[in-house]
Amino acid sequence: MAKPVSIEVWNPNGKYRVVSTKSMPGTRWINLLIQQDVRLEICTEKKTILSVEDIIALIGDKCDGVIGQLTEDWGEELFSALSKAGGKAFSNMAVGYNNVDVNAANKYGVAVGNTPGVLTETTAELAASLSLAAARRIVEADEFMRAGLYDGWLPHLFVGNLLKGQTVGVIGAGRIGSAYARMMVEGFKMNLIYFDLYQATRLEKFVTAYADFLKANGETPVTWKRATSMDEVLQEADIISLHPILDKTTYHLVNKERLAKMKKEAILINCSRGPVIDEAALVEHLRQNPLFRVGLDVFEEEPYMKPGLAELKNAIVVPHIASASKWTREGMATLAALNVLGKIKGYPVWFDANRVEPFLNENGKPPAACPSIVNAKALSLPVSKL
Ligand SMILES: NC(=O)c1ccc[n+]([C@@H]2O[C@H](COP(=O)([O-])OP(=O)(O)OC[C@H]3O[C@@H](n4cnc5c(N)ncnc54)[C@H](O)[C@@H]3O)[C@@H](O)[C@H]2O)c1
Ligand SMILES: O=C(O)[C@H](O)CO
């Protein structure tokens, strides 16, 4: 028998019952749900990561949809429980959905939503922040200052890397990888090399246009190259940022052998998912190569770090905060809520999950559609023609 889980209830007499496994930023998402006859139950349990058992208790006997988090294990057990309770919709409050077994959701006919687009620039900005912090050794210098060790300017004090004219490498040039690449190319006049399974045409056009602009103004133009292998990026780039999805093909994409191919003074940034890097191999590589630096937002076994990582001066570590800007987190909550609401109301799926702005306009009514359902095709859901 599952333990009861503490909740906060909005609109107790609502016709549809939706559960959110966490309190989320902002109030727009709450208002959008309760205005459409939803009884909303928000879990207020103190523990950060809910177990499958906790979520089954939250779902109960009747539940139309659930808004969940990337820390939860959405597989056979949960989709079966949701389906038994009459549920038709689940949405992650995240773009990444490697915590969701989409095949299990398909089996029970549950639509799975995610929140693309609204976090693209915010996440790319954190990757850029980590790149700068690592290149200019900002965290080490801050610790030095606070420890009272600064006794005057010195020619060798915290000398780092100049980004201008160096090469930035991007693995996974989708929405976030491309936004990061544009920031580094335009902001710091870096040359670009990228690897993706698909051609990043818009990104290539952007860098070409920027190069033309620089040339026309008498400056050295930036360059770009689409690598034919990931190893080419590892060998040529000075900073490498990882932005692929996590799946079987990207698990331990960066391993001991690949780390060895990188420049001795390279910088590696990861704002995608922890298991994309073999973290134990990374700790060893950082130990052996003190000039190699890393900026990590995500870890292989969150919330833990592999032994030794926390002690290394050449590692900057932050707790999975890449999408943590107020506007973005409120927008993620809105998109997740509208995914669930849209499915409950029988709305079609929005025609382009990369163009979700109409759902985020706080002064307007959102379109009558689910912003992003990843298994729309598998479930043969109708697509909005708006
Ligand atoms: N740290 C955070 O807080 C945070 C925030 C947002 C997103 N993310 C992660 O970032 C990921 C990417 O988000 P997005 O919106 O840019 O997704 P996206 O789908 O637009 O981009 C992912 C790209 O990875 C490429 N890719 C897939 N497999 C590859 C492989 N084997 N080698 C090279 N490239 C490959 C795809 O072709 C695609 O272009 C998410 O899935 C999520 O896991 C993390
Ligand atoms: O996938 C995601 O969206 C992140 O990890 C959290 O923003």
Automatic annotation (TrEMBL):
Residues 38-347 form the D-isomer specific 2-hydroxyacid dehydrogenase catalytic domain. Pathway: Photosynthesis; photorespiration; 3-phospho-D-glycerate from glycine: step 3/4. It catalyses: (R)-glycerate + NAD(+) = 3-hydroxypyruvate + NADH + H(+). SUPFAM superfamilies: Formate/glycerate dehydrogenase catalytic domain-like, NAD(P)-binding Rossmann-fold domains. One of its GO terms (cellular component) is peroxisome. GO terms for biological process: oxidative photosynthetic carbon pathway. InterPro entries: D-isomer_2-hydroxyacid_DH, D-isomer_2_OHA_DH_cat_dom, D-isomer_DH_CS1, D-isomer_DH_NAD-bd, NAD(P)-bd_dom_sf. Pfam families: 2-Hacid_dh (PF00389), 2-Hacid_dh_C (PF02826). This is glycerate dehydrogenase. It comes from Pisum sativum.
